[in-house]
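Note to self: user wants both folds in one dump. Writing first protein now.
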Amino acid sequence: MVATLEGTASRCGDRRVAATRHSAFYGNLRPQLYRLIESETVDPVRNPYAPGAGQRPPELAGRDRELRQFEVVLERVARGRPERSMIITGLRGVGKTVLLNSFRSMAIQRLWGTGKIEARPEQSIRRPIASALHMAVRELAPRHRAPDRIERFLGVLKSFAQSGPEDEAKGRARAHRWQPGIDVPATRGRADSGDLEIDLTELFVDAAEVATDVGAGIALFVDEMQDIPADDVSALCAACHELSQSGGPLIVVGAGLPHLPAVLSASKSYSERLFRYARIDRLDRESADIALLAPAEREGVTFTPEALDALYGAADGYPYFVQAYAKVVWDVAPDSPITADDIRVAAPEAENELAVGFFGSRYERATPAERDYMRAMAALGDDPVPTSAVAEELGRKPSSLSPARDGLIKKGLIYSAERGVVAFTVPHFGRFLRAQPV
C-alpha cells in the first residue's frame, strides 16, 4: 500500500513525494493523503466541461434571473392569472437552446404537457406544431378522466396537420397518405380551414381546454424562431393573442437571434406587448468563474486566480467559449491547480477547434459572394456596421449586394441589427475572418 502510494505521489510532484517519505509522520494520514493525490490529478476521463450545440453545461451559471422569470410565468398560469408567453434572444453560443431546454424541464417537473420544435427557413410550422402538441397532450392524457375528450382533440389535431395549402395543391389523396401518428379519425370542421391563423387559433384554444380539464398547462418551445416564415409568424402571434385574452393555460416559449423581436413586431404590431422578452448575453466575470470552478471542484480540481483571468480573457465570457477552452485546458493540464501556463499551452488547440467546428463550419456554408460580404464586414470592425459602409469597402453599389446580404441573413450568419445596419450572429466571427488568408 505504501509503495503504491509513493509511486502515485512520484507522478504527481516532488512535494507529494517528500510527504510520503516521512511515513512515520504521515502514517495516520495515508487515506486522506491518498484522496488528496487523487483529487490533484487532472484526469481527462473526468473532464466535466461540455461544449456542444444545445448541450447543458455542468453548471448553468449566470441565468438565475431568466429562470426566476419563467418560474413566475409557470406559477401565474397555474393559478389562472393572465401571463405572456416568453421570448429569449441572443447571439449564437450564449446558451439560448440550453435555457430553452431548462425551461422545458421546469414545466415537466410541474406535470405540464410539453413539446418542442426547431423552426427552419421556408418550412411551414403546421406539421411541426402538430407533432409538438401531440407530444404534449400525450403527456397529459393519462391524467384525463374523459378519454373521449382526448380522442376528440386528437381528431382535430390530425385534421389540422393535414389541412395545409401545400396539401391542397398536391391533392387530398397525398395529404391523407401523410399520417401524424394519431390513431383516431380526422375531425372535420375544426382547425382545418387551410388558413393557418384561423386553424392555429382554434387548435390552441382546444388544447388549452384539455389542459384546463386536468388542472395543468401546455408549453410549446420553439427554437430558431426567427426562421419561421412571415405568414406563419403572423398566425402564431394571432393564436397567442387569442390565448392571452381567454386566459387559456397554453404558452409559447421561443428562442432566436437578436432581431427576433423585430421579426415578431413586423408580423403583428401588438407582439411587443404579447411576449415577455429576455435578452441573454455573455457571462459576467463572477458567473464565468462559477461555470469553471463549480464543476472542477466537484472533481477535486481548481484554478489559480491567474488562470481564471486568462480564461476569461480568452473566452470573453461567452458560455460556449468558456466550455470549449475549459475542456481543452483540462485535458492539457498535468495537475491541480490549473495555472495560467496551462491556459497558454492549451489556447492554440482550443482556438483551432473553434476555428474548425464553430467558425469554419459556418463560413463554409457561404457562397463566394457572401464570403466577400462577410470579409468586408470584418474589415470594418466587430460592431454592427452600416450596409452602405460594406458596399463602400467592396467598391460596389449597395443594391448590388442585396442578394449576398439576404442570403447571409437566411443562413443565420448575419442579422439586421436595425434598418440599414448588419452584424454577425456569431461572437468573434469578425476576428476569425481577419485571421484567414485572403
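First done. Writing the second protein, which came from a different request thread.
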Amino acid sequence: MSEFIVIQVGQCGNQIGSCFLPEILQEYDVKLSHDPPSKCSKRDKTDLQQYMYSFFNFGTKAATFDTLSDLLRSNAKARFLCIDMEDSVVARFRAGKFRDLYDKKCLITNYPGSGNNWAEGYCSHGPKYKQKILNAVQYVVEQCDNLNGFLLLFSMGGGTGSGLGTFIVKLLADHYPSVERFIVCVYPTGTEDVITAPYNMAFATQELVNSATCVFPVENKALLDIVFRQTSRYCDRVSPFGPFEDVNKIIVDMVLHLTSGSRFGGKMNIDMNDINTNMVPFPKLNFLLSGFSPFVLKYVTSKHLKNELSLMASSRSCQLVKADPLDSRSTSMGVTLLGRGKFSVNDMRNYVDKLKTRLRFAPWSSKAVKVGLCDVPPKGLDFSVFSLSNSTSVLNLFDEVLSQFMKLYKRKAHVHHYTAVSEFDIQNFKQCQNDLNDFIQLYRDVEKIKPFTFNKR
C-alpha cells in the first residue's frame, strides 16, 4: 500500500494542511463531531479504512474507526510535518481538535519569521534548521513500509514557503533521491499582498525546475474565479468569508484526487509514480496543470450528470491555473484522466475520444493519454473526473512571473533586502532571470516542433 509524507511549510502551506487532515478523515468515513451519520455498512467501512495507512501510522489497528475518538485510541499519528518560521499557525495544531494526531517531533517553528524574503528562508533558515528538519523527516520515513513520495504544500509568494519550502525540496532530492517529490504550490499572481512576491516566486520557480519530481501549481486568482462562479451560480448571496475556506478546500480536493489512485483500489489504477513517467518527457518540463469536476464547496454542492463531465475537467473554467489546455495554440505533451466512482472503461474511452478532437498533441505523443479508474468516489459524490495536463499553456503563468520579476528588478527595487542576507549573492538575480528565460524557451521550442514527415521512395 502506498504511503505519503506530507510536509507543509509556511503560513499558507499550514493553512492548507489544517483543511487537509479533516478532509482525509471524512474521505475515510471517520465521523467528526458535526458530521451526519455514515451511510456505509460495516463491511464497506472496513474495506475503505484499510487504506488509511497512506497517511497514518497506527499503534494498534482496529477493524474500523467510527469516530475521531476511535482513531485516537489506536495511537494513530498522521505523517505530517508542519514547518513554519512563525509559531501562530502551527500553534493551533498543538492545541486544536486534532492535536493528538500530530507527532510533536514533527512540528518545527521559529520566531520572528522570514520577513517575506526568499533569501532569508532559503539561505538563512534553511541551513540553520537543516539537521532538525532531516531528523524529523528520517523519524517519519523509518515508520513507513512502502513510502511512495513526499507531498509538499507551500506558497510561492512569502519568505518561508518559497524560501524554506524550496530548500527542503532540494534537501530531499539530495538525501532521498529515489523518493518522488510532488509539490503543490500556490502562486499569488494578481492577488499579491507582499511587494517582494515577484522575486520570491521567481527564485522558488527556479529551484523547483531543478529539484522537484512534479509540480502541481495553483493560482489564487484561478481558485477565486472558480469559487465565485460556483457560488454565484447556485447561491443568491456570496459570503465575503466563505471563499477563502473554499479556496483551501479546492486545493485539498485536488491533492485527494491526485493521490486517490495510489490510496484506493480500482480496475485501472494510476500510481503517483506513473505520473512522472508518463507526463514528463523532458526533465525540466515538470509543471502539470490540474483540473477536476464537479466542485463541492462548503457553501454550495453542485449536481452534475456524468455526461456533463466529459470535457469539463480539462476546460479552462476548471483549471487551478489561469491556462487553457484545450487552446488550439497550445501543445500537449501528455494527459492523465482519472475517473472516480461509477465509471466504466467505455465511459473513459468515449471521454478520451472527445478530448483528442480538442487537443493539439506534440508529434511524438499523439496517443499520450493515460486513463485510470478508481473505485472510491470523493466524499459526497457518486463520481468525478480528474485531469492532469503537461501543456505549453502553462506559459501564461511563467510569463506573468517573469514579467513581474523584471518590473522590480529593472529598477533594482527592494534588492537590498536580499543582499542583506550574507549567504545571498546579488548575481543570483541575473542568474534567475536567465534561467527563467531558458525555461520558458523550452516550452516555446515544444510549440515549434512540427509533425514528423517521411520521404517516400
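Dump finished. Worth passing along: Residues 112 and 246 are 29 Å apart (CA to CA).
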